[in-house]
Amino acid sequence: MKHLDEYRDAAAVRQLADEIAAAATRPWTIMEVCGGQTHSIVRFGLDALLPPSLTLVHGPGCPVCVTPAGMIDAAIALSLRPGVLLCSFGDMLRVPGTREDLLRAKAAGGGVRVVYSPMDALRLAEENPGCEVAFFAVGFETTAPANALALREAKRRRLGNFSMLCSHVLVPPAMEAILADPGGRVQGFLAAGHVCAVMGWEEYAPLAARHGVPIVVTGFEPVDLLGGVLLCVRQLEDGRAEVENAYARWVRREGNAPAQALLREVFRVVPREWRGIGGLPASGLGLSETYADFDAAKRFGLEPEEGGESCYGKTAAHAETGAEAEGGCLAGLVLQGRIKPADCPHFGSRCTPDRPLGAPMVSDEGACAAYFRYRGEVC
Q1: Separation of CA 350 from chain center
Q2: Is residue 10 part of a domain?
Q3: pLDDT tens digits along 42-60
Q4: 4 DSSP assignment
Q5: CA–CA separation, 62 vs 26, rounded Å?
Q6: Could you say which residues of the chain have pLDDT below 70?
Q7: Is 117 inside any structural domain?
Q8: In degrees rounded to 5, what are phi and psi of residue 166?
Q9: Containing structural domain, residue 154
Q10: Using CA atoms, how far apart are residues 268 and 288, in angstroms rounded to an integer?
């Protein structure tokens, strides 16, 4: 693959691919959980180096992609309130809600400001005491500590005009839902190294044992990813279902204890709606009672996740049957690993980064965006 030749350790990658081909004697399907891993796989053509019997599918590992339309609608409504400034990372602005996105709300006069960290939003609140500043907090366990730190600092500074619209999600419940799906085909997982750097990997052990699937913690470099695939294939071939850490240079078994303590202080585990998957119990983080005064949803009377619907206005049952979502977008099936982006009939035609039907074509970590960017000419 032409992109692999740009990689400094291309020879090591090809050697790992040869070892995987020698180890895999049966068909196997492995899912990588992180959108950053997906982009590395597609960019460097790692899946093309694997034997035809080995399939890599892409999971719901893009935080932008799994943020439900109801939460986007709540953020839009908040930005249109007089005296309110909604702060968000830039990749959230073009994610479609039920009818529009934050970029259109901004063009219509909404108070939307792109920031690069929650501390930027905190600074804006401090500099503008007459304005309500709300930070749109999305992401997995990776981004949660920084947001928790911003809330702790807001409490310390007694910033009464700062709040957070929280849409954090947790990785293990999504993996559980995928494995519990009768129509699922995932037999092994590559776990996201940055999430495990925060949370450790002990929480994955019960999941691996309960479903009989190997879970390998890995990073984002091509050598990391194929090294993880090799360990996963060896477990599958041996009939083992364990958690292995192939990212030991960054991940420890117990994770980052101070970060976990901060998460327990600021957040509590709550049910969460996942775009393209539906409602999952105990799969998100909401603000704890100690920080309830900073909850934008409560402060402004928003209810972004009521109704039990998935991101495209369909119930989870529609996703399970493969029914088309609103606008014909099949992104929900991509997020569940049921299909690959190029299998959607609208990929590259009705759905492009300039005219996205679904969030995975918007986000820099979305699988559809990765396929369009690196393989649009051949898909």
Answers
A1: 24
A2: no
A3: 999 999 999 999 999 999 9
A4: G
A5: 30
A6: 1-2, 303-327, 377-379
A7: yes
A8: -100, 125
A9: 64-170+257-299
A10: 5
